[in-house]
Each structure stands twice: as structure tokens, then as C-alpha cells.
Specification:
Elements lengths: L7 E2 L7 H6 L1 E5 L2 E4 L12 E5 L1 H4 L12 H4 L9 H9 L4 E4 L3 E3 L26 E7 L10 H15 L2 E6 L3 E3 L83 E3 L27 H16 L3 E4 L7 H14 L4 E4 L14 H7 L4 E3 L1 H12 L20 E4 L22 H11 L4 E4 L30 H7 L11 H16 L3 H4 L2 E4 L23 E7 L6 E7 L10 E2 L3 H7 L8 E4 L6 E3 L10 E2 L7 E8 L4
Parallel strand pairs: 4-5, 4-15, 5-8, 8-11, 11-12, 12-13, 13-14, 14-15
Antiparallel strand pairs: 1-3, 2-3, 6-7, 9-10, 16-17, 17-18, 18-23, 19-22, 20-21, 20-23
């Protein structure tokens, strides 16, 4: 793997010259301290703004459940004006993830493009992850649908002028049941497949056998009780294909990805996760499985259009050998091509016997989703987790500093939902996002609407009232519309609380480019304060670290240091907080007992304080009251006494 590790457990007590050359600079209290010598000061940390164009500029306020495009409206590529993009850039973002821009299966028809049957749709607009043509963009997003690719190229040009790099989805595991490319018909998936066999190395799909569960043909979809549906899909009356979630049945259920079909990368997934028989990264194009060649052509197509990177959907379900091969080829076309992976190690469908996040990084990804840390933070409010539970995830090797961290995305519930995250409202995002963003050096991501407290309240369509802003339906975001403000993108309709929240997120995002956060190392403080009664205990708690989390970030090149502190509690102000900084940590920071560090708060109120270093391991640093749902980023500057 490239890069270097964060602090990790080690029994030794010194560092050799060879260790120092590799980045290991010493040991502290049983932990090895590593310095990433590959990071330079001119490398901007990727900060991604995720946005679904369907929602971004849609000013319609009808919001009819299961409404059509004509009823509920739809955002367009043109809504990303120079003003809108400059505001996104000014907030501190480096990348714009244009989610779901590919042509998808949809219930809306256009000239030369009929609507898809409702049986293979989730929602009238359709799922952005049921792609109908990988070489085209969604006509919904164009003012002139017949010129949609030209309008998309114009958007790419505006992003470049604004100084924003563009990421699009790469959905390698599955496509819509109605897939067929009008742009490149010769590269349509499944066109020449042998449908008589379940698996063939050069088939694009997996085909059901008459003996498979579900009663044999025709394919029976779980839609027969839905309006306008029959439960059948005419093209699959004589054959059937495995669903995108690996369901081998003629009768998939509603919880299956029944609207999609699984793609075949030359490996029979029913034989297990060992894919070592597949080709290596230097294999000529002619010698790899057919799906590899098609996918390489797709990546090259979008790179040629000017796309800067890709977010790979469910990347753990794809052979690691394909990733090594395809990313290698993509970087030959563009050495700076950015790849980040959505992946989950706890999914039994993963195609590796080791930890899949590590395997994906080894295959060439720049970053992988940090779902485990997200789950613990959400668990503080819905499953009895403690902030201390984060400690187990801060010593996980290379991936700790190469994880993409987020508090929202299109798959997760909204922070401001009235019935999720403790129902505490949009301010719960402050401690959660501050802790997430400040932990490591990896990319950061914020989902549009998060910065103004979009709650996703009420039913919307296919997804119902699930606390997520729908990706399946024509819809708009009422709170986000207040920032759009009739296309002015000036936040003119926001309440003061929302304006303050958006400004806070911008301040946090920009702070994350400071050296200590962009290239520094991590030292957790909760383990040293569990027995400290001044470390944020609430009520009759006999141990510390339930609602308070604290850690240090230190950059060896600039010698910059930050103390990040968060109060996750929804109603309690933590008073008389004293954070002990152990002697080993002070040694790691290069602070001697004769110095008097100056502490300056940089995220909220500019509070300052100084204390002799000799007092920090025992008395600690006394903080002012920490309001509920708050975070503090405190810069520590050495001041010789």
C-alpha cells in the first residue's frame, strides 16, 4: 500500500534509521508514530460536495407524492450557474460530485426515447443507479433534451472555470434491465451473450437456469400489485438474469435490486470470493474478460469528456483484479484521475478474503468510504454507543488516513430528520461532522442540503417517509431552496440559524486544509481520560467518554497542532471540563515541561487560554462550558516560559 499508517499499536521502544527513512519516527506509550513523508504542502485535500442535479436547482414547491416531472419539476444542468459554482468553491470545496447524471431507466418519455415499463422502475423518475445507457446523460437535466450531452459539456466547462473538479458515478456491479446504448450500440451489455448458461467468462450477465428458485420462466417481478404494473418484463419472458444484489431467482422480492441486473467480470460469484485466477494489471485489453473491456471503454469515454474522477458504487462486489487493471489504465490516460470507493467490509458479497477496504486501496483507489466510524457516531443516538467506541477504529493502518468521511450522503438518513439522530435537528451535524472531518487526512464529503439542515421530512414517493431525500422521484428540497433563492444562490431565504450553520460548515471545511489536518497525525485523548471525572461526565456516569470526544492532530513539517473537542450530548452543557494531555503526548508534540502553550479556539469563538505544560498531564486544560451539540478546534502554540 502507498502512504503510511497513523499511530498504531507496537511493543517496541525505539526507531531505527531505516524506520525513520520510511516515516516511522518513534514510539509513544505503546503506540508507533508514523509521519507520512509522501504528503507535500501543495497537495489540496479533496473536499467533495455531493449533489443530485435533479434536486439542486429545482424551485418547484408542489412536491406531490409520486408526482411526474411536469407536476414536481426537475433541476437542470444550467442551474449550476457561475454564481452557484463560485459559492460552492468559496465554501472550500475542491470537487463536485454530480450524482446520477447518466441516462437511467425512467418513467418519463422523450422523442426517440420511450419511457421504461413501470415494472422495472423504482419511482417515476427512476433510480440513478439503474443506468440505461452508460454513454449518455439523463435527458431530464437538459433544457433541450436532444442536446443534453452538449449541455453537460458546458457544465463541465463552467466547473473548470470555477476551479472545481468533477466526479461522476461509476456503477460497475449492475445496470438497468432495459439497458441499451444509443450512443454506442456496439458496446451494449449482453448483446452477444450465451443465454443458455448461468456463467461464461465472456458473458456480460449471469443467466438463470430453469432449476433455480422461483418456478422458472418468465421472470416474475414483485410489482404486480403496483399501479400500472403486471409483474412481468416482456424481454425476460423466456430467460431471466440475476439481480444486482446477487439474487438468483425467477421471483425476486421487493427488497432485492429487482430493477437491475448483475454484471459478470469473468468470475462465478457462487464459487466464493477467490478471484486470483483473473488477469493482472498489465494484461493486454484483448486478453481480459469482455465486461472489463466495456467498462474500460466507459471510463475512457467520461475521461475524454473532461471528468476528473469517479465514485465507484458498491466497489466491494467487483473483483480486485479488475480494479487494479482498470484504474491503472485510467491513470495512464490521466495521472491525476481520482477514484473513491463505496464499499462495506461486512457485506458477504465482497470479493476478497481480507479486509475489502484495504484491498481496494491496494488496487489503486485514492480513498474508501468510512462507514464504520459513521455507524458509531449514529449509534451514539440510536444504539447506546459511547464516544470511546471510536478508539477501536483509530488504529487501522493505512486506511485511517485514506478514508472518505461523511455525515450524510444519498444513502443515509438526514442529520436534521425529526426522527433520526435523536431527533435533535440540524445542529447534531456540528459535533458529528467536526469529529469525522478532523480525524484523518483523507477526502471529506458533504451532501447538498446538509449545510442548511434539510430534514427530508414526510413521504416523497417510492422510498416513502424514510428520512432520506429521495433519489427515485421528482422532488425538491424546501430548506435548500431558501439558499438557492430563486436562482440568486445567496441564501436570502434562510433563517438566521441556517445561515449560521452554513457559515460554520464553510469554516470547518476551510480549516481542514490547515497543515495539522491536511497532512498531520492523530493522537486520541479519550483513552487517557477515562478515569478523569472532569472529562464530560453526565449524571451518575462512573466513567468518562460517553458524550465527549477529544484528540490531537499534529503536523511534523509545520509543527502545527490542534486539539479537537466535541460535546455530542443533545441537551447537556458540559461544564468544568478538564482534558488531561499525557506526558507521552506532549513528548510527541515536542512540548517540554518548561513551556507554556497558548490555546486558541479557531472554529467558534476565538477563546484563548494558556497553561504551563507541566500541569497538562495532571490538572489538564480547563475549557469554558461546552454547549450541547458543539465542537471546538483549538490550536496549540508553544510559548517558551
Amino acid at each position: 500500500m502507498s502512504g503510511s499508517s497513523p499511530i498504531r499499536r507496537q511493543a517496541a521502544s525505539g526507531a531505527t534509521e531505516s524506520d525513520r527513512a520510511r516515516g516511522r519516527i518513534g514510539f509513544v506509550a505503546g503506540f508507533t508514530i508514523w509521519l507520512d513523508t509522501t504528503v507535500t504542502s501543495d497537495q489540496a485535500r479533496p473536499v467533495i460536495y455531493q449533489v443530485l442535479p435533479r434536486l439542486f436547482g429545482n424551485l418547484c414547491t408542489t412536491r406531490k407524492v409520486n408526482g411526474t416531472l411536469a407536476e414536481n419539476g426537475c433541476g437542470k444542468f444550467r442551474d449550476f450557474t457561475a454564481t452557484a459554482l463560485s459559492e460552492i468553491k468559496a465554501m472550500g470545496f475542491t470537487h463536485l460530485w454530480l450524482t446520477g447524471i447518466h441516462e437511467q431507466a425512467s418513467g418519463t418519455s422523450y422523442p426517440q426515447r420511450p419511457a421504461d415499463p413501470p415494472d422495472i422502475l423504482k419511482g417515476i423518475a427512476g433510480s440513478p443507479y439503474a443506468i440505461r445507457d452508460y454513454f449518455d446523460v439523463c435527458p431530464d437535466y437538459a433544457v433541450q433534451p436532444g442536446k443534453r450531452l452538449a449541455e453537460f459539456k458546458n457544465l463541465l466547462g463552467r466547473c473548470k472555470e470555477a476551479g472545481l473538479k468533477v466526479i461522476v458515478d461509476f456503477v460497475p456491479n449492475h445496470v438497468a434491465r432495459s439497458y441499451g446504448s444509443d450512443i454506442r450500440p456496439g458496446e451494449t451489455f449482453g448483446a452477444d451473450d450465451d443465454k443458455s448458461v448461468f456463467f461464461d467468462r465472456n458473458n456480460h450477465f449471469y443467466y438463470l437456469r430453469s432449476s433455480d428458485p422461483g418456478g422458472g420462466p418468465p421472470l416474475k417481478l414483485p410489482t404486480s400489485s403496483m399501479p400500472g404494473c403486471s409483474g412481468l418484463f416482456a424481454p425476460e419472458s423466456g430467460f431471466g438474469r440475476v439481480t444486482g444484489n446477487n439474487s438468483i431467482t425467477w421471483s425476486p422480492g421487493r427488497s432485492d435490486w429487482y430493477e437491475t441486473v448483475k454484471l459478470n467480470y469473468g468470475h462465478d460469484f457462487t464459487t466464493g470470493p477467490d478471484t486470483s485466477h483473473l488477469p493482472g494489471p498489465e494484461t493486454p485489453v484483448a486478453d481480459v474478460p469482455k465486461t472489463w473491456r466495456t467498462m474500460d471503454s466507459i471510463l475512457a469515454y467520461w475521461q475524454d469528456l473532461g471528468v476528473d474522477g469517479f465514485r465507484a458504487d458498491m466497489a466491494h462486489m467487483i473483483p480486485m483484479e479488475f480494479w487494479a487493471w482498470s484504474i491503472h489504465r485510467a491513470r495512464q490516460r490521466d495521472p491525476d484521475a481520482f477514484f473513491t470507493a463505496e464499499a462495506y467490509d461486512n457485506d458477504p458479497a465482497k470479493l476478497t478474503t481480507g479486509h475489502v477496504l484495504d484491498a481496494l486501496l491496494a488496487a489503486g483507489f485514492d480513498a474508501v468510504y468510512d462507514d464504520p466510524v459513521y455507524d458509531i457516531l449514529e449509534g451514539l443516538y440510536d444504539s447506546g454507543k459511547w464516544a470511546n467506541d471510536l478508539d477501536a477504529l483509530t488504529f487501522t493502518g493505512d486506511r485511517f488516513h485514506r478514508s472518505l468521511r461523511y455525515a450524510e450522503n444519498h444513502d443515509e438518513v438526514r442529520l436534521a430528520s425529526p426522527r433520526e439522530w435523536g431527533g435533535l435537528g440540524m445542529d447534531v451535524g456540528r459535533p458529528v461532522t467536526a469529529v469525522l472531518f478532523g480525524m484523518g487526512r483523507g477526502p471529506l464529503m458533504l451532501y447538498s442540503g446538509q449545510e442548511v439542515g434539510e430534514p427530508a421530512a414526510g413521504p416523497e414517493g417510492f422510498g416513502g417517509d424514510d428520512a432520506r431525500t429521495t433519489i427515485f422521484d421528482y422532488w425538491s428540497m424546501p430548506e435548500f431552496q431558501k439558499w438557492v433563492n430563486e436562482g440568486k444562490f445567496d441564501g436570502g431565504g434562510l433563517e438566521e440559524r441556517q445561515r449560521n450553520l452554513r457559515e460554520w460548515y464553510g469554516k470547518l471545511v476551510r480549516l481542514m486544509q490547515e497543515p495539522a489536518f491536511a497532512r498531520g497525525n492523530f493522537y486520541g485523548l479519550n483513552h487517557a481520560n477515562k478515569e478523569n471525572p472532569g472529562f464530560g461526565r453526565v449524571g451518575d456516569e462512573a466513567a468518562s467518554g460517553h458524550w465527549l470526544y477529544a484528540y490531537l492532530r499534529h503536523d511534523w513539517q509545520s509543527r502545527q497542532t490542534f486539539l479537537m473537542v466535541a460535546n455530542f450530548h443533545g441537551t447537556e452543557t458540559l461544564t468544568d471540563v478538564q482534558i488531561q494531555i499525557p506526558a507521552d503526548a506532549l513528548g510527541w508534540l515536542g512540548v517540554t515541561k518548561n513551556e507554556t502553550p497558548l490555546f486558541t479556539e479557531r472554529l467558534e469563538d476565538g477563546w484563548t487560554f494558556s497553561v504551563p505544560a507541566a500541569e497538562l498531564p495532571t490538572q489538564g486544560i480547563a475549557l469554558p462550558p461546552l454547549p450541547p451539540l458543539s465542537a471546538r478546534a483549538i490550536e496549540i502554540v508553544k510559548v517558551p516560559s
